[in-house]
Amino acid sequence: MKLITAIIKPERLDHVREALIQADITRITVSRVTGHGRQEDIDIYRGQKIAPNLIPKIRLDIAVNDEFVDITVDTIINAAGHGEGEIGAGKIFITPLEECIRIRTKERGGKAI
């Protein structure tokens, strides 16, 4: 089992959700977050460089069984990107998921996802 965390632009959320649904990946958690990556959003105020502003982003958390990792990642990449080399398109993190428990049924592991 893996936990896929994707940080994407807010305007790409509907495209990514629709693509995930088409790929039979329907269980996701969506959060609004702010952050800063490689974007050159440096302001100069009275001749001084000031810290870049935090930029609104969307965080998707998707728990999947191992056989769904590649399709989930490929779907997000294809739906979230605008074009080649675009700065600020987002990031995807894949981490091992030690355990998953469905509270209602007490199922554990891959069945709980």
Please tell me about this protein's structure.
The protein has 113 residues and is of the alpha+beta class. It has a single domain (2-38, 51-112), classed as Alpha-Beta Plaits (2-Layer Sandwich). The chain has helices spanning 13-22, 69-80; strands at residues 2-8, 29-35, 43-45, 48-50, 55-64, 90-96. The chain is elongated. The mean pLDDT is 89.
Task: Note the overall shape.
Answer: elongated
Which parts are unreliable, with pLDDT below 50 for 5 consecutive residues or more? none
Tell me the name of the CATH class: Alpha Beta
Q: For the largest beta sheet, what order do the strands appear in spatially?
A: 2-5-1-6
CATH topology-level name: Alpha-Beta Plaits
Indicate the mean pLDDT.
89
- Series of H and E elements: EHEEEEHE
> How many structural domains does the protein architecture include?
1
CATH architect. name: 2-Layer Sandwich
The number of helical elements comes to 2
In a nutshell, what does this entry contain?
Helices cover 19% and strands 33% of the residues. The chain is built from 2 helices and 6 strands, in the order βαββββαβ.
List the helices and strands and how they pair.
Blueprint: E1 2-8, H1 13-22, E2 29-35, E3 43-45, E4 48-50, E5 55-64, H2 69-80, E6 90-96
Antiparallel strand pairs: 1-5, 1-6, 2-5, 3-4
Helix pairs in contact: 1-2
